[in-house]
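retry 2 of 3: previous attempt timed out while embedding magnesium ion. Reduced batch size to 1 and resubmitted. Inputs unchanged:
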Amino acid sequence: MSYETVIGLEIHVQLATRSKAFCADDASFGGTPNSHVSAISLAHPGTLPRLNARAVDYAVRLGLALGCKINPHSTFDRKNYFYADLPKGFQTTQDRNPVCIGGSLTVDSGRETAVRSPSTIRIHHIHLEEDAGKSLHDQDPSDSLIDLNRAGVPLLEIVTEPDLRSAEEVAAFMTEIRRLVRWLGISDGNMEEGSLRCDVNVSVRKSGEKELGQRCEVKNINSMRFARRAIEFEVKRQIGILESGSRVAQETRGFDAGTGTTYSLREKEDAHDYRYFPEPDLPPVVLTEQYLREIKNGMPPLPVELETEFREKYKLPDQDIDMLAQDRETAVYFLKLAKLAGSETRAKSISNLIINKLLPWSVTSKIPLDECPVSPSGWLELLDLIESGQLSASTAYQRLFPALLEKPAGSPTRLATEMNLLQSADSDFLDQIAAELLDRFPEKVAEYRKGKKGLIGFFMGELMKMSKGKAEPKAATKVLEDKLNE
Ligand code: ADP
Ligand code: MG
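retry 2 succeeded.
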């Protein structure tokens, strides 16, 4: 019997605002435990929350990027539960009227392979809420400790429809969301620090079955690899249960990275367990048409838009597009060079320079591309030297490239001249070497003249050696052939 996997995600994106969602406490990651906490974060009697406007801006940016309908009138609710890391005894969230509704994201789980397989995942809604604090279980031998610095940090929760069908699709979706939130500047998307994490709802059903199977929710996955392993384990476990004739129980489960297994945390709680009720201390969020226009106008072009431009205008292949559009900085840098070059035909050589040379340099040096000491026009000059035959590509990249980065002030042409790297197409220079060469190998010349034309490769090799690599190959071949055919 074959089964189909069905997955829906609840993704938490921690917003990169300076202060918390409902007060001025520092929202940055880390810090001395319990140093980013005021009476408001703790909901002491007499304090009142006030919504961080920047968090709303960020929610709207993401909503617009995902094609959601932006709710002109969203509201907050209290989700009540008791846990040590929740000092208020409730989480302020949006239950009834979330800020963004609907929308979708198209992802390609075939990116890693040559076979593209795009699928469109529908989004149910996105709501704004606050994070809880952190329980630390490994700091003290006998007690669990609490750090409330994170309590009240703004989160967006993206809830998808159960449209995902495999661990690969989940990884592709998470990767796409990470790129998008970074692109929009609303979150650092850092999974290790927990700025991006997800709850994975998994069920299986017999192939062809229309109804959804009973699902389990695996909580708080904070790496792509864990997501993949948790899903693979859950799918096997649930199929095992069905095959043995039993039924999957709806549960909330945890993932143990050590063993790669999931374990039951509790039976699934229902909404009424939380006794949601409207938050009395926060007014509705009213968003006007004009406000939405302003946010829209302040947004950068989206990744898909630039990808389309790279494909259609610059005729770049998919692999290049994936690399150049991996983040906004790289995409913008490419466009800067491409526009400066003034002609689309140079796009591929610019792309090669960025992908093969500049990105590896940027990773090693930890210097962002747009802070590169060599200016965009400097790089174009380097490409000019190669394309006009004045410099061989290997000399350009192996010798001039590192030298330029060390002496960024000099122009590539000047530096190449100083380093004596430029190739020569000068006919006197080439004539002289060719004449010397023919004198040196009279038997080979005779063989060539008898018809062994393949020897041109040998002559070119020798000529290159004699010129110390400075002969421009096309011109040199022409001079040699003319002499040999005399
Ligand atoms: P709840 O509010 O009880 O957590 P929701 O209906 O809001 O439940 O769904 C939460 C998430 O679970 C959504 O991402 C949804 O797509 C997903 N989901 C719902 N039913 C299933 C199912 N049968 N299999 C897999 N995922 C599901
Ligand atoms: Mg849920």
